[in-house]
């Protein structure tokens, strides 16, 4: 089935303020339906950057895991997570633990790792009472909309992510690296261009430099691809930032981002990035049973504040090493 015939068969709704939405009649066997339409659905995601499939009637974790696996060549194991997730099976996770009243601003999942997911899969089992959409934004358009000065600097220098692992906030060493063994963590860091320092108290501080703009492997488009704003101190709620700075100091925050040369990123730049994302945001409220497929290179995603219970499952697939994301540790730059 071609992309155009799939669009006609599934009644794909295209609106400028929403992701593409495919309306389907609830199949008797959702995993089998997903397997039959896998290539055509993936083509829709490539064309539009994201596709919400409404009508699948996804009901439970096992069914979601089966659908995710039928749509991919296998799900990825998350490494370098910044916040805990609950795992329901190989590669099947809860959405990131994050306060319901605070937004998770636009970002590309694991854009600070050397090998990133090319495809994100989300399934809603319980829709929130209000809010909570997984919104999306076209990364090529965001890049084009950014003013020349910060865009060109980030293109030239990339960006730095600094992390200080603590037992109180964020993912633990074992949750992030899959092990608590110091030698194994060091091996992982060396293999993945992460500079690391063990602190006197036994905690770990890491720094990694990554490109801010990458080329899409299929379309050839340059895409704004990073978590510069999301993981920056100025995106935190003011009271949260103040508390963390008082607790850990300016240089000891659990995570923060900088320009590629190590210079601090000002609040004005972070506000600019988030405002540009806002101008290009498309959203559709979740309904129970929905499936959302997101091209993680072409499309950023966010999670909006919500009330009520919200259960969204997540999978990552199609591992990809973006062009320009080879080893970029401080040692490599000297």
Question: What's the helix and strand layout?
Answer:
Blueprint: H1 3-10, E1 12-13, E2 20-23, H2 30-36, H3 38-48, E3 50-54, H4 61-71, E4 87-89, E5 92-94, E6 104-107, E7 116-126, E8 130-131, E9 136-138, H5 139-145, H6 148-157, E10 159-165, H7 173-177, H8 182-191, E11 195-198, E12 204-210, E13 213-215, E14 222-224, H9 238-248, E15 255-259, H10 267-279, E16 281-282, E17 291-295, E18 299-303, E19 306-307, E20 311-320, H11 330-333
Protein name: TauD/TfdA family dioxygenase
Organism: Streptomyces griseicoloratus
Domain TauD/TfdA-like: 29-316
How would you sum up this structure, described in words?
- One of its GO terms (biological process) is antibiotic biosynthetic process.
- GO terms for molecular function: dioxygenase activity.
- This is TauD/TfdA family dioxygenase.
- InterPro entries: AlphaKG_dependent_hydroxylases, TauD-like_sf, TauD/TfdA-like.
- Its cofactor is Fe(2+).
- This protein has 11 helices and 20 strands.
- It folds into 2 domains: about 5-100 and about 115-130 and about 285-320, Clavaminate synthase-like (Double-stranded beta-helix); about 140-275, 4-Layer Sandwich (Double-stranded beta-helix).
- The protein is α+β, with helices and mostly antiparallel strands and about 325 residues long.
- It is globular, with a radius of gyration of 20 Å.
Summarize the entry for a quick read.
The chain is of the alpha+beta class and 334 residues long. It is 29% helix and 27% strand.
């Amino acid at each position: 089935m071609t992309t155009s015939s799939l669009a006609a068969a599934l009644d794909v709704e295209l609106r400028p303020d929403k992701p593409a939405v495919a309306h389907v009649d609830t199949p008797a066997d959702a995993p089998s339906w997903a397997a039959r339409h896998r290539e055509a659905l993936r083509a829709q995601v490539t064309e539009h950057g994201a596709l919400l499939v409404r009508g699948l009637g996804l009901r439970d974790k096992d069914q979601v895991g089966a659908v995710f696996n039928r749509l991919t060549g296998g799900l990825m194991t998350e490494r370098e997570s910044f916040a805990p997730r609950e795992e329901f099976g190989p590669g099947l996770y809860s959405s990131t633990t994050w306060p319901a009243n605070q937004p998770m601003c636009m970002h590309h999942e694991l854009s600070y790792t050397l090998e990133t997911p090319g495809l994100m899969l989300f399934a809603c089992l319980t829709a929130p009472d209000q809010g909570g959409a997984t919104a999306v934004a076209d990364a090529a358009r965001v890049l084009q909309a950014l003013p020349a000065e910060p865009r060109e600097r980030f293109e030239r220098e990339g960006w730095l992510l600094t992390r200080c692992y603590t037992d109180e906030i964020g993912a633990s060493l074992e949750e992030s690296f899959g092990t608590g063994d110091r030698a194994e963590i060091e091996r992982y860091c060396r293999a993945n261009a992460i500079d690391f320092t063990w602190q006197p108290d036994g905690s770990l501080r890491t720094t990694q430099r990554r490109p801010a703009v990458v080329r899409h492997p299929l379309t050839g488009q340059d895409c704004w691809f990073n978590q510069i704003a999301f993981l920056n101190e100025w995106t935190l709620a003011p009271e949260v930032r103040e508390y963390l700075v008082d607790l850990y100091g300016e240089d000891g925050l659990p995570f923060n981002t900088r320009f590629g040369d190590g210079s601090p990123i000002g609040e004005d730049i972070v506000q600019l990035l988030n405002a540009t994302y806002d101008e290009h945001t498309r959203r559709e409220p979740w309904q129970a049973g929905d499936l959302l497929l997101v091209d993680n290179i072409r499309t950023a995603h966010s999670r909006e504040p919500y009330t009520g219970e919200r259960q969204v499952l997540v999978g990552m697939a199609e591992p990809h090493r973006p062009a320009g994301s080879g080893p970029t540790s401080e040692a490599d730059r000297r």
